[in-house]
Specification:
The chain has 176 residues and is an alpha/beta fold. It has a single domain (9-175), classed as 3-Layer(aba) Sandwich (Rossmann fold). It contains 7 helices and 7 strands, in the order E-H-E-H-E-E-H-E-E-H-H-H-E-H. It has helices spanning 21-32, 39-46, 63-76, 104-113, 118-129, 132-140, 154-174; strands spanning 7-10, 35-38, 49-53, 58-61, 79-82, 94-101, 146-150. A 5-stranded parallel sheet has the order 2-5-1-6-7, with helices on both faces. The protein has a two-stranded antiparallel ribbon with strand order 3-4. The longest helix is centred in the C-terminal third of the chain and has 21 residues, at 154-174. The chain is globular and about 50 Å long. It binds 2'-deoxyadenosine-5'-diphosphate.
Length: 176
Amino acid sequence: MPQFLDNILLHFVAWTPGVGKTTLGKELAQRTGLTYVNIGELAQEGDLYDGYDQEYQCPILDEDRVVDELDEKMTHGGVIVDYHGCDLFPERWFHIVFVLRTDNTQLYTRLESRGYTGKKLQDNVQCEIFQTIYEEAIEAYKEELVHQLPSNTPEDLESNLEQIVQWTKQWIKDHN
Ligand code: DAT
């Protein structure tokens, strides 16, 4: 893995799972040799939690411990981070941010099939409707680093992968 390649934050921001971050992130890691890190899995493995959210029925992430845990790896570079929140990460960690977008009806179906119901389901879909994801990303990072990609079909997935792989190659060339 090239050490001089900076880190990629793959889609991102509060409360929109189901858009295809994991699918894209894992495949991208395979094609580029970058390291894929799923914050949800990292937290589960290290028990990096600080209480339980009754309303959303999920454990609350201990953000400081997550950042401490990842900091050394991020300093080396070449990491794809998959998470649905943005304000916890230091800005210096990321060289590029991709926000995946899925049409609301599709998102609704994907989340429902994952067992989401009630307020959790509604809030996640609303977040996509109101563009919360993208807006939070450009508040946290320089606008030119944030890229939106459609993630509705398998063709979108392939074209996103091709674009990001191309971008990665170019980045390596420019910084070598
Ligand atoms: P996330 O990691 O954002 O929660 P995921 O990668 O687990 O999302 O994908 C959620 C579901 O959607 C899963 O069943 C795979 C499917 N999916 C992902 N990307 C897709 C795409 N571009 N087109 C159609 N389905 C997709």
